[in-house]
Amino acid sequence: MSHQPTSIDFRANVQQVPSTMPPAVQKATTKFLGNRAALVDALGNDFWQQLRQAGHEVRLHAITHLDYYLEQAERQVIQAGGHVHWARDAEEAQRVVIDIARTHRAKLAVKSKSMATEEIGLNHAMEAAGIRVLETDLGEYIVQLKGMGPAHIVVPAFHLSKEEIADLFREKLGIEAPAEAEKLTQIARMKLREEFLAADLGISGGNFLVAETGTIVTVTNEGNGRMCCTVPPVHVAVVGIDKVVPDWESLTVLLKLLARSATGQKLSCYTQFISGPPRTDAETGPKEFHLILLDNGRTRILQSPETRETLLCIRCGACLNICPVYNHVGGYAYGYPISGPTGVMFASQILGSKAAGALPFASTLCGACNDICPVKIPITEILLHLRRRVVEGDDLEGAAAPYSLRVGAQIGAVALGTPWLYRVGSRMLKRLQVPFVQEGWMANLPGPLSRWTMARPFPAFAADFRRWWRRRSDRT
Amino acid sequence: MRDEILGKVRESLGRRSGTVPPSIPPTARVPPRKAGDAETEVAQLLTEIGKLSGVTRRLANRDELRVAVAELINVENVKKATLWTTPDLVGWDVAGMLRSLGVEIIPPQADKRLVAACELGVTGVDAALPETGTLLLRSSPERPRIVSLVPRVHLAILTPAALRPDLHEAFADTKEAGYSVLVTGPSRTADIELTLTLGVHGPKSLYAWVLDES
Q1: Which residues of chain B, if any, have pLDDT below 70?
Q2: In terms of Cα–Cα distance, which of B121, B158, B193 is closest to B45?
Q3: Is A276 found in the same domain as A141?
Q4: Which of A148, A461, A467, B170 sits a CA distance of 20 to 30 A from A473?
């Protein structure tokens, strides 16, 4: 997943999901949801709802005043001695990073986990430019060795067994690796330690960008984020413009929400606050700090008031954990580095309806994500609007659904909305179905209807409800 | 690039440039946690750090500190150490204690590979948060970042004066300070089969000692 997909066929992807995936997903999500629930209980539901509302308001405020806060953040970073770059799209961001790397003759870059850098395919671009890029988050390191992308935004390699990981280390690192989590972690620690010390460039994302002081905040558990931002001589942070937060007071709300929602920890191990490069050499740290502010479709999302709240997302992953679809297919089916409900919102809008039009339909609209989102994004409302956009088009995009679906939807609307047509149609169905019925079921339907019977048989139409109702009413 | 992006943002929001600073709605704020009495706070801090597999101690004075340091050196097999040089640590002469126990002291500004060879990093604590068992460490010439990051063992020595009720108070002190990190337990991951393991890239062991004598 190191380049932008041109078309995501969710249905086809779902057919490829191995049978080991659902149990692995559910083991991870159950654990996170359980831990989260315990902490929400401990805080008290009233306070938790107060926090969610405050989180929603502060993020909405930031997004609706994004111009002001972006300029403030830029001023502050420059004042602190950092460099600020603005990238309109993935290619521009890649170029900026590669230029910085070339200026410093960097051969090796170490990277902490960053969805923004995955979104822009940074690793792929840097490798093509002859710069080795190493993922340092353990899960990302593992999937990178395997040549794959992340299957979950918080635990990228949850779907791999320790035996598979041991085999991977044996094959790719030439190390005799026992299949035990502790030992495998120690091997990764040792290997990556060498790389951290040798790296010319450290690349990170940013969970938040505080406009008040031009501070990027990174939230990690392993310490690789701190290593990438402290040990190499140059630090580059790629941060989406949607990550802006007005001030430190806002962080108090968001930090109380984030780790609890993501993994059920009160706070992650290391929450780092970086405002420009170190002011002195003696305190150790990088010599140079670069912040790349990434648009890549976020201004387009901002344009549409119905979907604007997509940008409130703080990337906790709670919506992935609770989503019944995600729990059955895992992250790869979505064809995008961010998966689950929030991945659907982002991918549909960043890639557009033509490429990602299948994704808004990859939802049961159960709404569990709305309830669990720490910043109260109305996710299913946004998905409904995105569906409308795919089928009918809107101000931003023309209809992208295949002609047959658009026509089918219109026919459906007429047939279901016109009473006499509905009555006639339902009587006809009883006759039309006869060739397909065997023992009360239709196992194989023709044409587009076969997409239903691919997975399960359809019951035969047995009676006319209205007639039955009339007779019943007549009898009483 | 910059002007285009900002232009698109303004256009999307229906705004012209040169805006007045926006005011944040009061419902976007949440009040800080209320602190209990000093003793309860310290006890809660140590309990929370313990839950994260940190090792905690309460020490009454410098003599107890010396004894504790000697035990730590033994248990963790420390040959080399690197330290902060804040007034507290210098005043307690932790470096001196270590040297007298045969530990070699490496300055944090030495070549990073030399610092990486240290088993122990000793720091103070700029603010401690009981609710989450969190230690806030700033960065300055006396507080090099690498000390709490690279060695296998991180020893943080604090006094009760470092305690703060919540993030709000801790941030008020440090937001202009340039760099800080909230440390909540030793480094960990559950990336392999969701099994928790400690000591991934950051320290494997966190020792947090509260020294009552100031």
Answers
A1: 17-19, 214
A2: B158
A3: yes
A4: A461
Task: Write down the pLDDT at residue A2.
Answer: 42
- What DSSP state is assigned to residue B34? P
State the amino acid at position A180 in one-letter form. E
Q: How many residues does the structure list for chain B?
A: 214
Domain span at residue A214?
58-299
d(CA A244, CA A219): 15
Query: Residue B205 carries which side chain, given as an amino acid letter?
Result: S
Per-residue pLDDT tens over the stretch A337-349:
899 999 999 999 9
Separation CA A426–CA A74 (nearest Å): 63
Domain boundary among A242, A277, A299: A299
**Inside any domain, residue A281:** yes
Closest-CA residue of chain A to B86: A283
Classify residue A47: in a domain, yes or no.
no
Number of domains observed in the structure of chain A: 2
Task: Note the pLDDT of residue A3.
Answer: 54
CB contact (8 A) between residue A270 and residue B187: yes
Helix axis angle, A162-173 to A138-146, nearest 10°:
70
CATH of the domain at B51: 3.40.50.10420
Name the pTM for this structure: 0.90
Model confidence at A401, pLDDT cuts 50, 70, 90, reads confident
- In this prediction, residue A221 carries a pLDDT of 92
- The question of ipTM being above 0.85 is answered as yes
B3 is a domain residue: no
pLDDT digits (tens, 9 = 90+) for A222-241: 999 999 999 999 999 999 99
Does the structure show a pLDDT above 80 at A367?
Answer: yes
Residue A213 binned pLDDT confidence (cut-offs 50, 70, 90) = very high
Contact criterion met (CB < 8 Å) for B141 and A80: no
Tell me if A337 is assigned to some domain. Answer: no
In a domain, A343, yes or no: no
Which candidate, A152, A180, A186, places its Cα nearest to that of A32?
A152
Nearest to B201 among A57, A61, A223 (CB): A223
Last residue of a domain, one of A299, A322, A338: A299
Phi first, then psi, for residue A188 (nearest 5°) are: -65, -40
Instruction: Strands of A162-269 (E only): list them.
Output: 201-204, 208-210, 215-220, 234-240, 244-245
Polymer length in residues for chain A: 476
Q: From B195, which residue of chain A is nearest by alpha-carbon distance?
A: A181
CA pair distance B33, B48, nearest whole angstrom? 16
